[in-house]
Description:
The structure holds 3 protein chains of 3 kinds.
Chain A: H1 28-32, H2 48-51, E1 55-56, H3 65-78, E2 83-85, H4 89-93, H5 116-122, E3 133-135, H6 140-151, E4 161-163, H7 167-172, H8 181-198, E5 202-203, E6 205-208, H9 210-214, H10 219-240, H11 245-249, E7 252-258, H12 262-283, E8 296-300, H13 311-327, E9 331-333, H14 346-361, H15 376-398, H16 402-407, H17 410-428, H18 458-472, H19 475-490, H20 496-504, H21 509-520
Parallel strand pairs in A: 1-9, 2-3, 3-4, 4-5, 6-7, 7-8, 8-9
Helix pairs in contact in A: 3-5, 6-20, 8-10, 10-12, 10-15, 12-13, 12-15, 13-14, 19-20, 19-21
Chain B: E1 9-13, H1 22-33, E2 37-40, H2 47-57, E3 61-66, H3 71-84, E4 90-95, H4 102-107, E5 110-114, H5 120-135
Parallel strand pairs in B: 1-2, 1-3, 3-4, 4-5
Helix pairs in contact in B: 2-3
Chain C: H1 17-20, H2 49-53, E1 76-79, H3 86-98, E2 104-105, H4 110-113, H5 136-143, E3 152-155, H6 161-177, E4 186-189, H7 193-199, H8 207-224, E5 228-229, H9 235-240, H10 245-265, H11 270-273, E6 278-282, H12 287-308, E7 320-324, H13 337-351, E8 356-359, H14 371-387, H15 401-424, H16 427-433, H17 435-453, H18 482-499, H19 502-517, H20 523-531, H21 536-546
Parallel strand pairs in C: 1-8, 2-3, 3-4, 4-5, 6-7, 7-8
Amino acid sequence: MQTKEHLSASGIPVKDIYTPEDIKNLDYDKDLGIAGEPPFTRGPYPTMYRGQVWTIRRLSGFNTPEDSNKLYREQYELGQTGFSVAPDITTAVGVDADNPMVEYEIGHSGLPLNTIEDVEVAFDGLPIDRVSTYLAERGPITAMYFAMAEKRGIDLKQIRGTTAGCMLSWACLNIPLQPTPKGYLRYGVDFIEWCSEIAPKWNPINHDSYNPRDLGLNAYEELGLLFASAIDFVEEEKRRGRVPLDRFVRRFSFNTAAHNDFFEEIAKLRAARRIWYKIVTDRYGVQDPNCAKFRVHVQSSGSTHTAQEPYNNLVRIAYQTLAAVLGGAQSIHANGYDEAVCLPTDQSMLLAIRTEQIAALETNVTNTIDPLGGSYYIESLTNELEERTWEYIKMIEDMGGMAQAMEDGWYHKLLRDKPIERQKKVDSGEIPIVGVNTFRSEKEPYKVPIFKPDPATSREIQAEKLRKFRAKRDKAKHAEAMKRLVDACNSDENVYPYTFEAVKAGATFGEVMKAQLDAYGEWPYPVGL
Amino acid sequence: MDKSDRKIRVLVAKPGTDSHYRGAELLCQILRNAGMEVIYTGRYQTSEMIVSAAVAEDVDVVCLSSLSWSQDKYYVEVANMLRDKGSDICIVGGGIISKKAIPKLKEAGVTGLYGPGTPYQEMIDHIVQRVKKDRWHES
Amino acid sequence: MTTEKKEKDQKLLNLDRTVRAQIIKTTTESGIEPKATAYNPDDLPDFDYKRDLGDDGDYPYTRGLYKGMYRNLLWVSAQALTRETAEKSRKDREVVWAGGADTVYLSSGDVNRTGCDPDHPLAKYDIGYAPENYSWRRIERELEGIDLEKAIVTFHGASSQQDDVLCVAQLATVAEMRDIDKQKIRGSCINDPISNVATSFSVEFPLEIGRRLNGDLTEYICKEMRTFSPFAPIAYDLWEAGCNSVQQLGIIMSSTAAYCQEAIDRGVPFDMVGRRVTISIASSLDFFETVCKLRAARRMWAKIARESFGAKEDKLCRLRIAVRTPGQTITRQQPLNNIARIGFQALAAVLGGAAAVDYARHDEAFCIPSEESSMITLALNHIIGQETSVGLTADPLGGSYYVEWLTNKLEEEANILMKQIEDIGGIWKVAKSGWLRQLVNNAREERMTALADGSMPQVGVNFFRQSEDKDPDIVEYEFDDMDKVQSDLMDEIKAYKDNRDIKKTREALLTLREKAKGTENLMYPIIEAFKADATRGEILGMIREGFGYSYDTVDMIKRPDFLN
């Protein structure tokens, strides 16, 4: 029951068999190389999982910093090997929890992190000196995290982790109080400059295509967006000329979504590594190949999970995880099978972690590097995805770059149109989804437990904390630090040294974000197209 | 384990047509390593054969191993036959025990009921405990 | 339902990632250690595409048996399902067929496999959990209303060759009695006495009888049921007994060749027996070994067919591989983990070019499969076929340096084992002498040690264990009132025996025993005996006596009076 044209999920025609003929122009040293060496197609590190297994890192958080701290401890005990913090809507919007605009959203699908105390509670007792943390925010919370680390006596030059900072996913949320894309870019580049100096082992940006991919983009469109966005950042720094480019790009990190087309997902990561290497070295002339490594966190794609027959999602997630492993991901988030229904229950969270562990410990796929390298199909598909990605990048560049394309409304139009396109294909059956439009059961064969967090009280708790926090801070110090921060935002100085001082002087997250926002004004989304 | 020289004598038996032998053989090995004397009847035993072997060998405990759905019936039958003979030989059972069967088994005096993946020491400790209490009548 | 309230010290967690994020096992399941850096063309210095791989549908079939492979037709999807009665089995099988399973998958229970009729004293409480097909009329009930000329009927659950033989004989009986063209029935049976002896998964049964029956059954099928596969040697059992991929390959290639030879020795040309050679192999958790094992098996068989049996036509060099996901890897602890395991195993089977995938269920460590777990694996099969796009191209892993290297390595190591077997005197000899049993026993020891000491990790069992009361409740299958099922069965068999034409039955059985002493093909007198309402136990007993053995496989009952 294949479609007549036999296309991959991204629409690439697939032949019935691939042979040496299909890759006769493959130059091993030039196109593949040894893992850990240019062009990194086979992996960014020489021993890959033989040296160290990928990080099991699940984006999570809910209700309050206290509840989330318990969750993080539990996940760590179950076997997770990295922390990943999902802040709630207040963070995405950029306000404090007592702002009336976000009255009903506190603690939903993330935790509120408004002050340095919140961050301290969330990370209480967690070995952040030895385990890396991913923070899904733009910079101020990371500043708080660094301040907390300093207090704990941790050397910032050694601390590891990642700050999100990328606009691709943020822009998909269509939330209020966002600066313009150019403003976003400005602050992002500020953060990278600052972070690369004070915390050189921290990943100051995580280019993230997860949300757009989930809305219906295909594999090469995903990569195209990812790299166009990364290029914007490099171009901005090139224009500024403040930091040498090799130091600037050295710790760029990436985040992608794993979809159902098993081999596409594997080939995609291989192509991405080769593409990024070429961008950094060929295009920007950076000599040190260590600055050109595409290091990626992969999350299984929520849009592929169904509310019908949720246990089927365990299978999908297993395959998406395996594809990420065979593609050489550095860190993986396997979703809970109930992702389409609710926040993960204890059971689904456990199963997600166990699935990663089964892949790591039982399947033995880890004991060799890039096991699919050389496969006629995989190499052909890698080449094809690379080619199409370059075309997509060029298309965005011709529009003036990613930030410009966003300001012109192109991105939002794409995000509006793609899901419609995809839904049409699902409705017509062109995209088969087991249990939904094909092989449906007459009745639901089983029930699964549902998680219902109760964040109703989070708002009260956080509001009270904020009140106390603001009351006890040194008002003079705070006011002065804030003034300096505001001035920096309004100039072209790097705002982050001032942000760091401000949070240490008791600035809340909302206050910092407001300073950033006011310098650019709120971006009215180009949604009425 | 037992400090005196007295060794626990065990009969490991497989009732009925269930053909899985690995669990039983592993059990024999574990118990021997723990210092017990183990006699294995092999597969394909009727309840009568098991009871008769247990009495003839004068064992302290019979360990029944079965992976079929009928195990509760055999285990209960063996336990009852021994009871009818006035014997206080203990019965311990293992395998994949259905939750519904557990009360009937306990009532007949069959204990243990260990499934696959049970740590060995747990099984050993249980057998020792039961034998000392119900067969050797030590406190 | 947040995390449980635990009394936790607010102290630093003391778990170091650089320690826990290490791979524990750097060898494959068969103990092969891949190099620590990536494989590249230098690792295949002698590689020749046409000689070593060929395209899909081309000799030596490494890349798959047919052009286009799954683009034209997906693999067969199979699930075993038996219930207490033929009617219940049928009802639940219909659900599973509607959900996408492709085969009429019949399996015998413990009672039949042991060679007992339901009224055998040993079987007292075991009867009734599977269809007790003591007579041909009982199996007819399972096949009621099915167009046998269009279905695929398999007897793959049997680990007991004599049971296999009787199953096929009953199938043939049904066909003859219902006027169905036997030549059109597709399917397969295991018919593998050598694995039975090596693994001892069922009752000990004399190998010489097994050998005779094996040849008779093969010959019979080649003549009378040409679209049925005469055997599918069960490397799966070898895996379950502890053997690794190399051992499975080495032993099963030897057995398969031996069974072909048995037929040839009876005058069946290789042209006939080679047409439908099938093996049943286990998909283990070692992902790449599974893929490479299938590729190696096809290439090995192609060479054996051509070089040892002189097959001229390429078609006669094909090996069909039915892959089963193993029950041994299904854990009782954290049972939902098993869904991912089955998923990985099935995917590996498909990537290796399996002709059929036979699924375990995630709750097998608890009870017989429930409807829920069956639906999950059915959906799993569809997800591979319809969502992952892996079926769009044949042998997608072909050309990968590691995969080609590992395929070569497995073939190489298996060949060493095959040669070793040859040097000792051949597979029949090593099966008879106990050498094979010893090999399997040693393998089993090794695996059990590895599981016990954690060098073979099993998540939830020897790693990341947790209290079982955190596990989800598995809904256990509700059996009928088994006391009633069992007593009904006893009444039924008694009535059957009382009401048959005992003279005819006696005559047919005694004829069978006579023929067992000779060299004629026993399938014909077995079928006659079934038609004369003989039971399985009686038929088996007569064959055993013909060979000079006791009547009963477990030496508990005597030959019934009417046969004296």
